[in-house]
Write a structure and sequence with these properties.
Blueprint (H helix, E strand, L loop, with lengths): L2 H22 L8 H22 L5 H22 L4 H30 L11 H29 L6 H4 L1 H14 L17 H62 L1 H13 L3 H12 L13 H16 L3 E7 L8 H20 L7 E10 L2 E9 L13 E2 L5 E2 L1 H12 L3 E7 L2 E9 L6
Parallel strand pairs: 1-2
Antiparallel strand pairs: 2-3, 3-7, 4-5, 6-7
Length: 445
Amino acid sequence: MTLSYIISTLFYILPCFLLIILTFRDLLKLHHIPIIIFCVLTFSVVTFLSSSIYLRLNSSLLRTLVSLPVMLFGICLFCTLALYNFWQGIFIIALVKYYAENVYFLSLYLHFTITKIFPHLSGIKVIYTTIPLTLITFPLACVFSRRLLRPALDYTISLNIWRTMWMIPFCATIIQDLTVTPNIAGPYFSPGNAFFFVPPLWTFLTFTTYTIILRMIISLSKNAHLQETLHLSEIKIAAQQRQLETLQLYVEQGRRSRHDTRHHILAIRGFLEKQDQKGLNEYLNELSEHFPALPANYCEHPAINALLCYYRELTEKERIKASFSVSLDSQIPFSDADICVILGNFLENAVEACQRMKASEKYIRLKISIPSRLTLVIITENSYEGKIQRAQDGTFLSSKGKNRKGIGIDSIKHVIEKYNGISRFDYQEPVFKTFLLLNAKEQPK
């Protein structure tokens, strides 16, 4: 095993390790240090052994067949250490592998362009072009992974789109290994030939395609989140509109009642003079039916109160037993909008769970309290039937689409992170319980 061979292999695998760790370090099981060390060492040994076989082969097809099992082994190790599924692991590892191969491939191309001599794949001379190319491209690869690859994966972690997306980097790697790389020293790619710029152009266009695709995925995911936010806003507006209509109805009825008060007093006096107790009771019962019930007042925060009134009315229509216990101060260090995001999503999910039930015992219980000045506790409990599905990252899958992560859960997660909160979900049919605690920061005086 020569020094040039060792250096060449290290410059191939080290950028891969660093790129994965820098991009996905928060999702890797870093607390299992021995397992990580074992996986890294095992993959390095497998890579070194496969490279020794790879470099002895003259057929591009055989080289490709040798590299595929190594990539599959790397995918299995990555999925063991990370929270992504197998298909996402293929996409990630294939893309990282494609980056590393292109750096080495372009270093060969650059050396051939300068010297007009095609170096051996493990030659020490190619290191002089590999080092600067790695230093130039690695920061760009980190930006690409953090701003495009990682968000696209996280937004769609539970979608089936990755069952087909993995084929893009996978096929791109195979096509390059079978067609472009073997012909780099051929007459078609010689300086002065019309096809001379095909290798770097191929690399540039391929990564441009990845950029466009990942941006589209992120944009579609953001649009879905905006639709969820708009949906919640529509609920809040409908709730406030409904509460306003109730208040207007009560004011109108009150105006009529004040106008007819004198007539009612005369009628009551007549029953009393005749000592007609039964008639007086019947008259009062009939009179009370004309007075509208006051809208519920759960707290002094209009938006929160309107949202709770809306869902209280909705549960009454759906014949769901609802119990809301709210204890909020007039001034709280939490945004009404953030609390409405949590309550709106929790209550909507609870109502939908009750609507899907066939049993008659349907209920929702909500308790909101502030045990201390900077702490908010929200506890919900509702009945449900069926199986609760969760993704690999622990998030709940939506019942509205197969294997689709609920967008509302992401909104709740964002609020929890904003207030350094904690959440707990307990579910055992027929009871689903949630516990949420938010911690507000001390407000400057």
